Amino acid sequence: MPQDLEFCQTGEVGNRVLGVLSGGDTDDTQLAAWSASADVLIAADGGGNRLVALGFRPIVVGDLDSFDMTLASRVEAVHEDPRQDRTDFDKLLEFVHDKGYRSLTVIGLEGDHLDHVLAGLSSVVRSPLDVRIVLRQAVGHVLREGQDLTYDEEPGQRVSLLPLTKCEGVSISGVKWPLQGVEMEPGGFLSVSNVATGPVHASVESGTALLILGRRPSDLASW
Which residue segments constitute the domains of the chain, with CATH numbers given? Predict the structure, then answer.
């Protein structure tokens, strides 16, 4: 994995950008596999501690209230952002966008604190980046206004489509229970635990939704 900071100054070079949060539900094997396969590795504050323990040298972004500064010589760079009106995940997303990247894979969102998980999803909604979220048993793909996404899913895989904001014109096919042009919103209609019948296609005319695709435990890292 490239460790030259100059490599990370622009989005014109590698496109495998991995953001690591401090949620503890990601096991070391999975985290190491994704980190080793990334071109650019960026940790939100305390996420940097775990990466260093696994032998990686990330860029660390945040207010640094959780990052062990005695490890500073063992990371690629430290970018302190003391603002308290932004979460460390917000700061990571802004940092990635400012460097010219347009897409990001995130790992470590899941953990013991539901408030952190919900805040993380709100951060994703605010960001203009194309975001993919690695979960313990699934991968979440953020579906934004006007986007059409297609994924080659094996029949029988779990598929859910959840609105993060009010959404209109939501469609999904390649599943047991397809939808066409429906309206969704938090607290309203959802599509949970659907079943793939082949390649899954999803689109939304307006709003932001999260398409969650189940994956096999053996799928450690796939870009």
Answer: 5-136 (3.40.50.10240), 142-214 (2.60.120.320)
